[in-house]
Specification:
The strands form four sheets. Strands 1, 2, 3, 4, 5, 6 and 7 form a seven-stranded mixed β-sheet that branches. Strands 14-13-12-15-16 form a five-stranded parallel β-sheet, sandwiched between helices. Strands 8-9 form a two-stranded antiparallel sheet. The chain has 20 helices and 16 strands. It is an alpha/beta fold and about 625 residues long. InterPro entries: Starch_synth_cat_dom. It catalyses: [(1->4)-alpha-D-glucosyl](n) + ADP-alpha-D-glucose = [(1->4)-alpha-D-glucosyl](n+1) + ADP + H(+). Keywords: Coiled coil, Glycosyltransferase, Starch biosynthesis, Transferase.
Length: about 625
């Protein structure tokens, strides 16, 4: 860098030197030359201090400039560091706020579950007091009503019941007098399966779903189940055995049972474990044995005996399928004062065959020498719920009644049709915490975000305009594999993306063989089921391939429509699902659009329709 100094240091003028007299000039030349040399030395000596001062000033200024420059660079670096720290603090603040929001939501959910757990745990404790003779059935009924009418207050006052024995708890219950005016119903399910403790089929998810929904509305729900050997206890809270003898009637004798209680998802569960007939529920499978009628009629009678003995007075007893349908005639014929079996077997649980083996009661409509237990459940129930995701009441009575058409026609006023159901508090894109961006039928922008997020996560080309097909199967047959293979070969050549995920070991093995044959960058296979990924697949897919539209276990059809994906059947027979709108399902313009447009399309036709009219604009 060059530095120029102007007027900062005065330079001596040549006219400032002493004048040389004329006498000197007149001297000889040699003398003049010598004198000139002396003058030069004199001039250098006079200029030397000036040069030193100039250099010193120059060095000082350069040093000052260097220090100033270093200070400027330091301050600039500090500013950059401060800006980075500020950005970091902002990000941490956002993360902290999100975490606080999640914790608050978790706390609210936990508080709600804790209240349900406490209430659900109090009721079995009262059962224990009745069975051990501490209180009468009348007092037990009053205590139960007090708890049901005062749900929130009871939860606040009895939060530490696990540390109290029955005598201490009874003393506190007797002193508890706050009552709520709100009316709620006490509902007891007598059934043979329930998620997550014994998930066998569609009944398991239905029992859990309807129980949770009823409890959210303020009703109290209990479930009575057999104590199977293969119970899944991962989500069970407070499992305990009631230390009391409990006998139930079967085949002309009284038989001892063990009673276990626990809470699952805030729902009080009672397990009945036979002692003498211990083999009834200690088997590998839940259904499919020659003595299924004996097994479940024993359980049905024991369930009613338990309800009576413990002093329960439920407003509703909800029975499920033929296995517990005999509770209907048992309740009205005894307690108020496989499906086809020999009439004399009714005597096993205390019923009179001669009174019930009649056309208007339990006599089978086709095989008149037998009694139909499911028919007895229909005849003796106040309401009958038919579970179907896609069929109307009329179609079920005409074509899917399994020989019960005359009975269903006579009792049509009792019949209600409901989808097999899933927990819409979990499977709802507007509240789904697994999704990167939530959305609803009124605002579908989040679906495109979910689609790109799914593509990115699976290593697919990230483009919301590409058609993405999700495929989730529980079981895959050889025929299904051939259909799927043909569908994928054709569609993948058009740039369509596929994501397969198995829901069981059987489907995973089948999909592995499919993966070997379908080696394509647009086809992705997920070997093990992941809950979060299943939600993202429904949200990010344009099309969901379904093994069957009448799918009571997985409910792929209903979930696809809820998440704005078009369901398409893998087989050619099961292609019609427009009846889904005929009964109790959330109707929106978007679900109506999906049903009307995609209700009878093949995969190729559905893809062409999506390409023609992108559905994110609806």
């Amino acid at each position: 860098m060059n530095i120029f100094l102007h007027t900062a240091i005065p330079f001596p003028s040549p006219f400032a030197f002493p004048k040389i007299s004329s006498t000197i000039i007149s001297k000889p030349v040699k003398a003049c030359a010598a004198q000139a040399v002396d003058s030069i030395y004199l001039l250098q000596e006079m200029l030397q201090p000036v040069k030193s001062v100039q250099e010193k000033k120059h060095n000082d200024i350069w040093q000052l400039f260097s220090e100033a420059w270093q200070n400027i660079m330091f301050l600039n670096n500090q500013r950059m560091v401060a800006m980075e720290e500020l950005d970091k603090m902002k990000r941490e603040n956002e993360i902290l706020l999100d975490r606080i929001e999640q914790l608050e939501m978790k706390k609210q959910n936990s508080c709600g579950k804790d209240r349900l757990f406490i209430k659900s745990d109090l009721l079995p404790r009262i059962d224990s007091m009745v069975l051990t003779g501490m209180i009468s059935t009348g007092e037990a009924a009053g205590l139960r009503m007090m708890i049901l009418d005062s749900k929130v207050s009871v939860a606040d006052d009895f939060s530490d019941i696990h540390h109290k024995n029955d005598a201490e708890l009874l003393a506190e219950l007797r002193h508890f007098s706050d009552k709520c005016k709100k009316k709620c119903f006490h509902i007891v399910h007598v059934c043979t399966e329930m998620e997550p403790v014994i998930p066998v089929g569609s009944l398991a998810s239905y029992v859990t779903g309807i129980s949770c929904a009823l409890q959210r509305k303020g009703h109290f729900v209990e479930v009575v189940l057999p104590k199977y050997a293969g119970l899944i206890l991962d989500e069970v809270q407070g499992l305990r055995e009631i230390e009391a003898e409990f006998y139930s009637y079967f085949n002309g004798q009284l038989h001892n049972n063990k009673i276990w209680t626990c809470v699952v998802h805030g729902i009080g569960i009672t397990f009945i474990q036979p002692i003498f007939h211990s083999s009834f529920f200690s088997r590998e499978r839940v259904y499919g044995y020659a003595d299924d009628f004996e097994r479940f009629s024993y359980f049905s009678r024991a369930s009613l005996d338990y309800i009576l003995r413990s002093g329960k007075q439920p407003d509703v007893i909800h029975i499920h399928n033929w296995q517990t349908a005999i509770v209907g005639p048992l309740f009205w014929d005894v307690f108020s004062k496989q499906c086809l079996v020999q009439p004399d077997k009714l005597a096993l649980c205390g019923l009179e065959p001669s009174r019930l083996h009649r056309p208007d009661r339990l006599q089978d409509n086709t095989k008149t020498h037998l009694v139909n237990i499911l028919k007895g459940g229909i005849v003796y129930s106040n309401k009958v719920i038919l579970l179907s995701s896609i069929h109307s009441k009329g179609l079920i009575i005409r074509s899917l009644s399994h020989g019960l058409e005359p009975t269903l026609a006579i009792h049509m006023d009792k019949l209600l049709v409901a989808p097999c159901g899933f927990d819409d508090s979990i499977w709802n894109p507007s509240t789904d915490h697994y999704l990167p961006q939530r959305y609803s039928a009124d605002d579908m922008k989040g679906k495109a975000v979910c689609k790109v997020a799914l593509q990115k996560h699976m290593g697919l080309s990230e483009n919301a305009s590409l058609v993405l097909v999700g495929c989730m199967f529980s079981e895959v047959s050889d025929v299904d594999l051939e259909n799927i293979k043909a569908l994928v070969w054709i569609a993948s050549k058009k740039g369509v993306q596929f994501i397969f995920m198995g829901l069981s070991k059987i489907s995973s093995v089948a999909l592995e063989s499919l993966q070997e044959e379908l080696k394509d960058d647009n086809v992705i296979f997920i070997k093990e089921y992941e809950e979060a990924m299943s939600h993202l697949i429904f949200a990010g897919s344009d099309v969901i391939l379904c093994q069957s539209f009448d799918d009571p276990v997985l409910q792929v059809l209903l979930k696809a429509i809820r998440y704005g994906a078009a369901p398409v059947a893998t087989n050619l027979v099961d292609k019609q699902f427009r009846l889904i709108i005929d009964h109790d399902f959330e109707r929106t313009n978007f679900s109506q659009y999906i049903s009307n447009v995609f209700g009878s399309l093949s995969l190729s036709q559905a893809i062409d329709e999506i390409v023609r009219i992108p559905r994110f604009t609806f």
